[in-house]
Amino acid sequence: MTGPTPLTLASIRQAPKAVLHDHLDGGLRPATVLELARAAGYDQLPASDAESLGAWFRDAADSGSLERYLETFAHTVAVMQTPEGLRRVARECAEDLAADGVVYAEVRFAPEQHLEAGLTLDEVVEHTIAGFREGEALAAAAGTPITVVCLLTAMRHAARSREIAELTVRWRDRGVGGFDIAGAEAGYPPSRHLDAFDYMRANLAHFTIHAGEAFGLPSIHEAVAFCGCERLGHGVRITDDITDGPAGPVLGVVANYVRDMRIPLELCPSSNVQTGAVPSIDKHPFDLLARLRFRVTVNTDNRLMSDTTMSKEMLKLSETFGYGWSDLERFTINAMKSAFIPFPERLRLIDEVIKPGYAVLLG
User: Fold this and answer.
1) Known binding site: residues?
2) How many Å apart are CA 86 and CA 88, to the nearest integer?
3) Would you put residue 193 in left (φ > 0), alpha (ψ -120 to 50) or beta?
4) Binding site membership for Zn(2+): which residues?
5) In the CATH scheme, what is the homologous superfamily, with its name and number, of domain 9-362?
6) What angle do CA 295, 316, 15 make, to 5 degrees?
7) Backbone angles phi, psi at 157, to 5 degrees
8) Dihedral angle at the C-alpha atoms of 239, 244, 249, 250, nearest 10 degrees?
9) Which residues carry a binding-site annotation for substrate?
């Protein structure tokens, strides 16, 4: 090679990528939703063919409201109530991410939402992790190896967060890497779940918190100061604490702390636009935060609802902000530094997979 490979969707697919914020129930294949719905006798789907169903999910999620966006999950969760459904969705998730060049993925879901067919919380986790392992094996056989780690989410409007935290610790070292809370932010602050976060800290277990997406700075402040989160799920509203000054951007107390402590931001550009967290990709604060040296990471959030992949997200950012391969490599290494796996495993993926992969693309 005589120079860098041109940045295209196809070439970005060849780049090794790491995703920290991807929802299992937000990444199903439309065809799989249809097949699982038929098998389960679920007749509430808004479309009867894969193409129309995929378009419906995308259009319904484009409401500009987090609450409306979350309503689309009723259909995907409905078809993930059996061992077969959970294993298939997890297996295909691993395969799809690997086919897009993702070498490390943390995929989260809420076990409490998958109990309608009589499964226990432990059985839900067991079958989901089995699906991830099957997907990893298939991806390796296809020449696209991937490591998938499961994060367990508690719904912030419910009262099972301590129970899910205990479930997380119980399955630690068996495929579960950490804990999270998710759902509508307004009216459900992170501090409602202090018992769960205290339990995680007492057990030296990892956790991230959805904060600063649909709600502003107070959500981030609570997640960091009261709950002690290691990462911020989205965290896009950290810009509420950044103002314009005569010499450039001025960071407030919370923004300074997040940057100084290298608390990663799990930014999801397309999703952030869909939920109304930001008005458009070109107005997304990703570039501002990257230039201010926050630890920014690129994520998909919900691949089905956003009709996206990690490669598409990276291409959008590159086209909007002029990023090159070295920038995409930095964002990927940011993610790997922040992963909920042991340091030697992070280092191995950075040194043996990510850096060599980008070196080829840089020429």
Assistant:
1) 21, 23, 25, 183, 210, 301
2) 6
3) alpha
4) 21, 23, 210, 301
5) Metal-dependent hydrolases (3.20.20.140)
6) 70
7) -90, -10
8) -80
9) 23, 25, 183
DSSP structure class, residue 232: E
The predicted model gives 251-274 an average pLDDT of: 97
Q: Computed from CA positions of residues 354, 357, 360, 361, in that sequence, does the dihedral angle turn out positive or negative?
A: negative
Beta strands in the chain (DSSP E): 17-23, 102-109, 147-155, 176-182, 208-211, 231-234, 242-245, 248-251, 265-267, 296-298
For residues 230 and 297, give the distance between their C-alpha atoms in angstroms, rounded to a whole number: 14
CA distances to 140, 156, 205, 280 from 272, rounded to whole Å, are 32, 19, 28, 8
Q: pLDDT digits over 33-69, tens only?
A: 999 999 999 999 999 999 999 999 999 888 777 777 8
DSSP string, 17-55: EEEEEEEGGG---HHHHHHHHHHHT----S-SSHHHHHH
CA distance 357 to 149: 21
- For the chain, how big is the Rg over CA atoms in Å? 19
Phi, psi of 319 (to 5 degrees): -70, -35
Q: What is the per-residue pLDDT across 150-195, written as a single tens digit (0 to 9) for each? A: 999 999 999 999 999 999 999 999 999 999 999 888 788 899 999 9
pTM check: above 0.90: yes
Return the percentage of the chain with pLDDT > 90, whole number. Answer: 91
Q: Which residues participate in catalysis according to the annotation?
A: 213
Q: Evaluate whether 259 touches 251 at the Cβ level (below 8 Å).
A: yes
Crossing angle for the helix pair 161-170 and 194-202, to the nearest 10 degrees: 20
**Would you put residue 323 in left (φ > 0), alpha (ψ -120 to 50) or beta?**
beta
What is the rounded distance in angstroms from the CA atom of residue 197 to the CA atom of residue 161?
9
